[in-house]
Amino acid sequence: MTAIAITSSIIGWLYFACWSLSFYPQVILNYQRKSVVGLSFDFLYFNVTGYICYSIFNSVLFWDPIVKQQYLIKYGPPIPVQPNDIAFAIHGFIITVVTIAQCFIYERGDQKNSMVGIIIGIGIWASLFIIVGLGAGGTITWLFVIYWLSYVKLFITFIKYVPQAYINFKRKSTVGWSIGNVLLDFSGGILSLLQLLLDAVESHNYKVFIGDPVKFGLSLFSIAFDILFMIQHYILYRERNNYQNLTESSTHPHLEDNNSISSEKQPINHSDIDGDNSNSI
């Protein structure tokens, strides 16, 4: 292996680590607060669908000989999927399912999936069934089928953060949404783009950006929204991060009293296990 190939492999596992670890701050935050208030259910609904598509796309393109051959004929080498891509996608699906399970266990206030989100989700799944049916009938190639999955994942990545950004805007707070998740996701996006660039340099084939549009687009969209969330957390709502919606405030009035991110160093009441002091994760 060349130095560039080795570097690409190392960076690939680094971005896998960043993106994989980015799921855990939210899970830990939910556990510490015993609440998912402030976390968008539409985000989770879209996310689990996206990772199902991404897992299938990566696995089939990496292992299926027919699809691999169809790809090589159309785009040429190399195959733009590496083992860390598969591991990341499957891991993302599993942890998203765990986060969804927390929504049934912990306090969630009056939050629920929006009708718009449900309708979009139904439309996405309907398109998937239609495309797979066409592939099974031989009307389209299986390469087209798995690329449709990748486009669905890319579309979901573009829209899934919108409900969360809107909730933060509506509540004028990022409480309930882990900033640790955002920072790790941002780092993973930068590293993912760097790996794609190194792969292109190594193979002298810049079609890898076209050959794996979901990985390229996933990185770009994630970075863009991560910047927005950082602006919300550190600039726009920095002084209002102890704000709670009416349901959570009335149910747990002490939640507004604790906030470790406040500029004032107040003693922490450890009995408030669901307080906002865990928002620093």
Automatic annotation (TrEMBL):
Residues 258-269 have a biased composition (Polar residues). Gene3D superfamilies: 1.20.1280.290. GO terms for molecular function: L-cystine transmembrane transporter activity; symporter activity. Residues 248-281 are annotated as: Disordered. InterPro entries: LC_transporter, PQ-loop_rpt. Its main location: membrane. It catalyses: L-cystine(out) + H(+)(out) = L-cystine(in) + H(+)(in). Belongs to the cystinosin family. This is Cystinosin homolog. It comes from Tieghemostelium lacteum (Slime mold).
